[in-house]
Each structure stands twice: as C-alpha cells, then as structure tokens.
Amino acid sequence: MGLVQVIALGGVGEIGKNCTVVREDDDIVVVDCGLSFPNEEMLGIDIVVPDFTYLVQNQSMVRGVFITHAHEDHVGGLPYLLNQIDVPIYCTEFTQALIRSKLEEKLPHKKIDIRIFKHGDRIAAGKMEIEPVRVTHSIPENCSMAVRTSHGIVFFTGDFKFDFTPVDGKLANITRIGEMGLEGVLLLLSDSTNVERPGWGPSERAVTAGLRNVFAEAEGRVLLTTFASNIHRMQQVYEVAAEMGRKVAVVGRRMEQNLDVCERMGYVKVPKGTRIRLDEMRMYSDKQLAILTTGSQGEPMSALVQMSKGEYGRLQVKQGDTLIYSARPIPGNEGAIWRTINRLFNQGCKVIYESPTPIHVSGHAYQEELKMMINLTRPYYIAPVHGEPRHQYLYNKIASQMGYPDHRLFTMKDGIPLCMDDTSAHFGEQVPCGRVLVDNSGTMDGVPDEVLRDRFNVANDGIVVITVPVDTTAGEMAGDPVIQARAFSGPAGILDAAYDVLFDALAALSKDELKDTARVKHDASDVVRRLIQKRTGLRPLVLPIVVEV
Amino acid sequence: MGLVQVIALGGVGEIGKNCTVVREDDDIVVVDCGLSFPNEEMLGIDIVVPDFTYLVQNQSMVRGVFITHAHEDHVGGLPYLLNQIDVPIYCTEFTQALIRSKLEEKLPHKKIDIRIFKHGDRIAAGKMEIEPVRVTHSIPENCSMAVRTSHGIVFFTGDFKFDFTPVDGKLANITRIGEMGLEGVLLLLSDSTNVERPGWGPSERAVTAGLRNVFAEAEGRVLLTTFASNIHRMQQVYEVAAEMGRKVAVVGRRMEQNLDVCERMGYVKVPKGTRIRLDEMRMYSDKQLAILTTGSQGEPMSALVQMSKGEYGRLQVKQGDTLIYSARPIPGNEGAIWRTINRLFNQGCKVIYESPTPIHVSGHAYQEELKMMINLTRPYYIAPVHGEPRHQYLYNKIASQMGYPDHRLFTMKDGIPLCMDDTSAHFGEQVPCGRVLVDNSGTMDGVPDEVLRDRFNVANDGIVVITVPVDTTAGEMAGDPVIQARAFSGPAGILDAAYDVLFDALAALSKDELKDTARVKHDASDVVRRLIQKRTGLRPLVLPIVVEV
Predict the structure, then answer these.
(1) Which residue of B196, B441, B487 is in closest CB contact with A536?
(2) Dihedral over alpha carbons A213, A217, A218, A222 (to 10 degrees)
(3) What span, in angstroms and rounded, lies between the C-alpha atoms of A112 and A100?
(4) With bands split at pLDDT 50, 70 and 90, how would you rate the model's confidence at B1?
(5) Which residues pair with B383 in a beta bridge?
(6) β strands within A353-462, DSSP E
C-alpha cells in the first residue's frame, strides 16, 4: 500500500476556488472545482480559477470530480477544467440542476458527463470509494464527502454548519459522521471560515423573525437582496410575505433562473399566489409588495446597483422603500456595497443592514460546531481548509486545546501534497499549482502576468507612446518623432521636455544605429522614462514604436 | 442682519475631507480643511482634497481656517488651499507642532501664517467670533468649535467622544458646552460616524487591560500597529511595556516624527529608559522588546507591510512574534490589511486583531454620547456631518426620537448652503464644489477626469496603439501601419484580424482623405475598436497616431 496524498489545488490559505485532490497510487479523485473573485489589484479580471496543470498531466488517473454543493467557490471552475480534460462530474440532482445549463453555455461543443448521487451512496473510484453525507449549509442538498482510502477515510466537511431547524427540515446526518469516526478517519479537512466566531451559530430559521420585524414596520415596498443561490433565504421571504399579505416579484437574471429551477423541482415551495411577475406589481399597493433582487455584492451590472443609480429600466426605487441587505460582504466588495447602500439612502430608500433580530445568518460553522465535528470524526490528522492563514492558525489552536498534539495538525498550502499512511504524515514536493486570471473576453485562457503588470503601471501613472519614423534602408529619420500620452497626468511642460531629450537622443544615433530598430526603441524609451521619473516620480508605461518607412 | 450660511465643501454624505464654511454677509470662516483617501475606482490617486473654488472666488472675505485637530481628514487639505489663497490658520500649539513641518515641506516658498489658540479663547473673525471648546478624541488637544453669529452659535462638535478617563486626564468641557446651549445654539453640526453603535463607547483607557493581556501571553516580541497620530495609544504602549519590563522601539517615519514632537512637548511621557533605538534591540531578549510600527491601513510602503513581505531592511518579523492590530480599517483598505495580516501569519507571527478585552477603541461618540451632545447644546437646528448618507439617516432618526420635528433636521450635501436666521432655514443654490484627485507626482493640481476614465479603460481591457505613417503632402501612405497592444489580452489572432480591417480601411481612403489626419485617425481607430469589441466584448483604449513623413 502506497501513501495517500491530499493536494489542494486551491482553497487553503485563502477563501475561494476550492479544489482538492486525493490520490492513492494511480487513482485520483477531485473534490470540488471552484472559482474565486479577484482582489482589487487584479485589474480587469472577472474570476480566478485554479491552475489545473496537475490534473491535465495526470488525466488518465482522474476518476471523477465530486461536488459538495453548487456554490460558485465549489463549482465555478468546472468549465475551465472540462475545457482541458474529460472527466465525469458526480453531484446531487439539485446541484446538477443549478450547474448543467451554465456548463453547456460555456462549453457548447462538449458532452457534459454528470452522474447523480444521493447522500449515502458509495461510489467506487479506482481503489477509493466516495460517500457523500448530508450536512446543513446555506444551500439545499449540501454534502460532506468521505473518501475511503486504504489508510482510512479522508473526510471533507465541505461548507457546513449544524443547523437543527433548517428551512427545508433536512438535518445533518450526524450519526453517519460519527460512524465514520468509529470506522477510522485518517484526515479531517474542515471548513474554518467562521473559526473566529465563538459559540454556536444561529439557525437559518432565526432570520424569519428579523424579516417579520422589517416587513411589519416598512412604510412601503420591501426589497431584499441576497446571494442568488441562497434558496432557503428566498423560501423564508416567500413565507413571511405570504403571512404579511405581500406578493413577491423577483429581479435579476440569475435569481430568477435559480428560483424557477427550485420551484419546479420542489426545493422552494411558493405559498399559493405569492409570486408575481414584475409587470403585475402595478396591481398592488406598495404595502402589498416585496421584491427579491440580486446585487448583494455591489456588482456593477446587477439589478440592485443599477436601481441605486436610477439606471434599471424594469424597476425604480423610491421614497418609502425599505431594502433588507441580507448577506455578508465578500472581503474586497465592501466599498462597492456601501456606495450602493448610500446611493439608495440618497434616493429615499431606507436600508436595513444591521438589526437586533438577525436579517442574515452565516452558513458556516462557529467554534463549537467545529469542535463537534472533530468530536464526531475523531480524526488522526487534522487540516483546516476554506480559510486564510489567520483562520488556519486559530483553528489549529482550537484543535490543540482539544488535545491534539502539534504533529497531527497541519497548515496546508496550495500545491503542497500532504502524504500519509496510517500513522505518519509529511509534506511532499510542490506540484504544479497556481491561479489563472480570467476576464470576460470569451476566451477561457488566463490573462498573463505581464499584462496585469502593464495594467497596474498604466492604471497608476499612465502610458507614454513614442513613435519614431525611420528609413531603415538609409539609416535616417524619416520624419519627426511623436510623443503621445494617455491616462497620464504630469506637470505642465513635461512632455515638451521629454520631446527635447528624445530628439537629442535620436539625433545622436549613427546611421548604423538607426538601422537597428531594437536600439532605437531602447534609447528612445530610456531617455523619456528617465526624464519623467526624475522630474515627477511617475513611472508610466513607455511604449516605443518604430515605423519603418 | 442677513442670513447665516453653512456650506460644507467636503465631509457631509462622506467620511473624510472635512471642510465647512460659515458665512455671514461678507465674512467667511472655514472650519477644518481635510483630505480623504481614494476609493478603489480612483486609479493612481493618492489623496482627494476639496475643490476650493468657492474660497478662491471669495478670498477677500475669508477671515481664517480654524482647525479642530490634527488628523489628516481635518488638516490634510491645507497645503492645497494655501497654494491658492493666503489665509491665517488658527489651531492649538499641539496641532501646529504636527502640521507646520508638513506645510513647509509642501509649500517651501510660502510664508505660513499659523496663529495659536487655547481652548476657551474667543477669536474675532469679522462679524463672527470663534471659541474652541475642549472635547476628547483619539488625539490630544482636540476641539469643538463654536462660531458665534448674529443668529446664534453654529456649533461644530468636531470629532469627539465623551471619555471620562482619557489617557492625558484632560476632560471635555461639558459645562461650557452646556452654557452655549443656554446662550443659544442655532445649528448643531454633529459627528455621526459611530451612530450605528448603541450605548456609550469605551474609554481609551480600556485598551490598557487588553494590551496587558497580550504582553503577558506573548512568547517573544510584541509589535503594535496603529495610526501614527494615535498619541494616546502609544502612551499606553509605553506604560504597559514599562510595567512588563519591555523596551519600546519605533519604526515608520511618520510615527517616529510624531513621537519625537510629542515627547519633546510633553504630550507623551516616556517612562525612564523605556524607548530605545532600533539598533539597541540586539541588547535585549525577545521577551524584553516591544515595537511600535506604522502600516495599520496596509499602506504598501509602510514598515509593517514591508516587514510582512520580508522586504524591510531595518527589521524582520520572525516565529514567536505577536502583532497587535490596534486600529480600525478605513473602508476600502480591508483587502490590503487582511493580506498583510495573512502574510504575517505565514511568517510565524501571530496577529491579534480581535480580543475579548479591547485592543482598540474608537475615538468617535456612540449613540448615547451623541444624544448627550444634543441634550447639552439644545440646538434649534441639527445636521449630522462626518458621515455617509446611512449615518446621516440614522442620526436624524435618533434626533427625531428625542423630539425634534423633521423641519429642524437637515441632511446636508456638499456644496449646498444651509441658509438660516433665528427661526427659519432652507437650502440655497449650489456653490462650486467637488473633489480634486491628487497623485504623488509632486504637482498640486488634480488629475483630470478624462485621465481617470482612460486609466479605467486601460486597467480593464488594455490599450491598442495604431500607428499610420502618411506622406501628407502627397496624400499617400508612407509605409505599413503598425498595431501594438499593451495591457491587452484577447484571443489568439485578434490583432492580426484587426490589422486586416485596418489595412483595408486605410486602402479605401482617397488622397484627399489621407491628407486629413483627423479623418485617418478616426477611421483607423473606428474599425479596430469595432472589430475588437464585436469579437471579444473588450473595450480597450484605442490610440491612433498619424506620423507625418
């Protein structure tokens, strides 16, 4: 029996783009395949996906990708993986309903191989076996994933909380998790996102009371924004709206699509007559209306942001409206979200974003829930995932308070294999791993790093283009050089001064040197770059162009 | 008697660049002159200052700028105002000590006219009179500012909290504020930053206990980062360090400068032998050391951020270090701050950023303190300042719960005068007002909006430069056009395709059209822009250059 290797291609030391490999000999299973969102330094980037080189290199060994749930940070990388290798996707029927259309849209010429499992199924994958276990989270049909290896179970908690009053009434299968603990968990890979929060998190059901209060006090229409995948939240809005005599309209493409699917499949139960179309709103008074909308992260093209700017054609906000901000900002989005909220206030819409009775609860386990998961699974080794280094540090501190010695606690890094047998573990050699930055240009390739660097330079200090017409046969200038700057803001006269040094530098070149376009470009950009930096401290991108005449 | 006008040139509907005008007939006084920090959409911008056009246009009326305290959002705009008009600055001796060197550095050829006041002084300013009143905040010698007009007092709370155990023992002059209430406050302009926080804020002194806990439990050195102006916080670090047998070194230019000034003037009292130079650290064990550092906002060039990257020459962090994050993120800086903290964890430095005993308290009043200020001043009119629309909304809601009718509560906007006499008030006509975006190029002018737009376009989608060599005398192409792209990432072949359409478009031009460089530029950029947008959805900046040969 060889070692079991666990390799995160994303999702440790960070929150987002979860994708983890379990490998035993020549068999590989992948758990989740997510995306993450760019930070403010990644200019022009829309999403970030893992670098799948390791899976491409070992594609003959990959038995399947097993999906815990349909959130973007667990499924959003699938099109980019399937674009490179053929591999079956295993997931619940619900997850399939949410992801299939997106996959087919992105990969129109590809046959998508999705295989449905139920919680409790045991799926063979080479020497390994995978068993999804039901746990609660902020989306229906969520799974922990047990991967049975020769050395014991590698147990992925997936995203979870222990919610004893979930909106759909489907409880976590705690007993089955405990049985796995008895059977022998080699490694627990635990969600650690909320490890900073003491105690036990509130049930999703707690939001009902918060919604009731806002609905009762609202002078006019009630709007609510949340993630388009937060199906349970939307179920609660339907219920409270029906109870309070309000109809519910939905705006935002992704939210409408998700609700349509969920209502059809029975994952959302709409009280009779409660959901209306947008054009039916005029039949009701403001106090009879509620509206579900996308835009909880301040996304520029979302319905809510456009409403806040008065630019949404289908619906306007107005004096007397109340918006419930029923979500948590993804770090980095705070600025855009507050700007949206402030614009709504300026339009007379009151925004509720904090409340003594909760209007949002997290889908992730708090400290005591995390400890309970350790207690149930009784793992030999532990490694926190789905967290930044600060979360990993604190999680391991808590595990050590539960008696775990340091050599059984690991702080994983993306791309570094954790290699284990029954009683020993060590980190292996780094495998190919990284991030691929994708924009919305329609290609699925990443934007190269040098393009990002150029964007950063131009965004800060602008670009200066130098054009030099040269008769390369004669080795002579064929006209005057041109300097043009864009996105550049220097003191008056700086470009004239740059032109003078450029002119002198070109005049100093011999015929042979002028025939050498690389030389011309180098000298021209060098003198201009130096002058600007010396006079202004600015470092614009300098682009020399030699036009051969 | 004419109306009294209050005009915010910055600082209402936003947090930052506080600058407010009080005008009675031909007399103008200005309270504060601050800067704000750019949001993530303001590419390449370092600071934002108010547009001072209104003061420039009325400079003969401006009697003085009265400074409440030395925080950047209250003084950082001064160099940009003084660059445009001559006006005396009135402030405390302490404030002067912190700002004079910065003003002289920025305006080397200008005589800076700073006049020192003490709390309780009455300073004549044309028909008006200004009286600074001592209130507590997170910096020494802070003031509220009472501006006496013919219609009553316009009372600026300035940034404040009611701290009954301030670190320097200097209490707010509550009685004097109450006397002003008896005398007659026409308008209260109140800090509203913390209006979302219920109750009464903790005293700055509360931080001592939090620091003691961390110092006691730290395995090695203790580092603490806070704002360079948070003098009281640094005083507490000195005291706790001395108590615990640790020496304190300081890194970060601005923090060192501020401490030098404050220690010299007696605003910080260093326990004997506690402060050491950085090069003396080697004489002590890790458990005998504490370090104060700048970088609490994740500023790229700060000591802390460079230490987190292992790029700070003077000091490295190491395993066993503990950093206390003793500050609050300015909105928009969260991403940079968390990245810094995570990098520190990766280097083995434990970071304390939350704690059951506080390691940071706010300098701004909570709800009950805000109510107490209303109670003391008993104003006729109220307008919250130093807050975003969400804060203004909530503040006015609280004031109305205290019995204020709507017509006495105002939600001011930058540049819209609030015009009052004893018993009536209305908004006047907008005056010139706006924001000036300043970068670090050394010029004091703003970066124009079109430069920002270009930066935004290039940052998202790159730049495509088209160079067309033309013999404008003959009306002929003088060589082949050139297309070059930077910061651009399109699918393979897109630039070749663009070249083809460009070539065809140029070939279609007549001799007369080729002589018209504007026409050539237009046609060339038009076909290229359209093709790229159609094929990729990208909208790069397209820059056409005609080189006349």
Answers:
(1) B441
(2) 10
(3) 8
(4) low
(5) B189
(6) 381-385, 418-420, 425-427, 435-438
- Which of A350, A451, A547 lies nearest to residue B488, judging by beta carbons? A451
Q: Is residue A487 within 8 Å of residue A463, measured between CB atoms?
A: yes
- Listing DSSP states for A185-198 in one string gives EEEEEEE-TTTTS-
**What backbone phi and psi angles, to 5 degrees, belong to B406?**
-55, -35
Mean pLDDT in chain A? Answer: 95
Q: In chain A, what residues touch B45 (CB-CB under 8 Å)?
A: none
Q: Could you write out the three-class secondary structure of B208-257?
A: HHHHHHHHHHCCCCEEEECCCCCHHHHHHHHHHHHHCCCEEEEECHHHHH
pLDDT digit string, tens, across residues A444-499? 889 999 999 999 999 999 999 999 999 988 999 988 999 999 999 988 899 999 99
Quick check: A1 pLDDT over 70?
Answer: no
Kindly name the residue from B191, B321, B461, B523 that is annotated as catalytic. Answer: B191
Min CA distance, B27 vs chain A (Å)?
Answer: 32
Percent of chain B having pLDDT more than 70? Answer: 100
B-chain residues near A194 (CB < 8 A): none
ipTM for the predicted complex: 0.89
Joined together, the tokens standing for residue A455 give 């964007």
Distances A312 to A334, A336, B212, B357 between C-alpha atoms, Å: 22, 17, 54, 47
The whole-angstrom separation of Cα A254 and Cα A70 is 13
> Looking at the complex, does the CB of residue A384 fall below 8 Å from at least one CB of chain B?
no
Coil, helix or strand at residue B523: helix
Q: How far apart are CA A310 and CA B87, in angstroms?
A: 42
pTM for this entry: 0.92
Enumerate residues 241 to 260 of chain A having a beta carbon within 8 A of any beta carbon in chain B: none
The reply to whether A46 belongs to the active site is no
Contact A447, A438 (CB under 8 A): yes
Say how far apart CA A334 and CA A319 lie, in whole Å: 25
Contact check, Cβ <8 Å, A465/B545: yes
> Which residues of chain B have a CB within 8 Å of the CB of A440?
537
Q: For B325-336, b where at least 16 C-beta lie within 10 A, e where not — what string?
A: bbbbbbbbbbbb
- The full DSSP string for B432-465 is S--EEEE-SSS--SPPPHHHHHHHHHHHHH-EEE
What was the pLDDT predicted at B412?
97
**Which chain B residues in 456-515 lie under 8 Å from chain A, judged by CB atoms?**
456, 458-463, 465, 467, 469, 478-480, 482, 484, 486-491
A441: confidence class by pLDDT, cuts 50, 70, 90: confident
pLDDT digits (tens, 9 = 90+) for B447-485: 999 999 999 999 999 999 999 999 988 999 988 999 999
Euclidean distance between the first and final Cα of chain B, in Å? 70
CA atoms of B403 and B400, how far apart (whole Å): 5
Interatomic CA distance for residues B346 and B548, integer angstroms: 57
| Interval B184-196 mean pLDDT | 97
- A108 Cβ neighbours under 8 A, 6+ residues apart: none
Locate A416 and state its tokens. Answer: 């570094």
A342–B388: do the CB atoms touch at under 8 Å? yes
Tokens representing residue B470 in the block: 């033309």
Domains present along chain A, CATH in parentheses: 4-199+362-438 (3.60.15.10), 205-352 (3.40.50.10710), 449-548 (3.10.20.580)
Residue B334 near chain A (CB below 8 Å): yes
> Exactly one of B74, B360, B364, B386 is catalytic; which is it?
B364
Annotated catalytic residue B391: no
Residue with tokens 């930077």: B486
Q: Which residues of B touch A443 (CB under 8 A)?
A: 490-491, 536
Amino acid at A174: I
Report yes or no: B156 and B189 within 8 Å, Cβ to Cβ. Answer: yes
Region B10-25 average pLDDT: 96
Matching residue, tokens 């029927």: A93
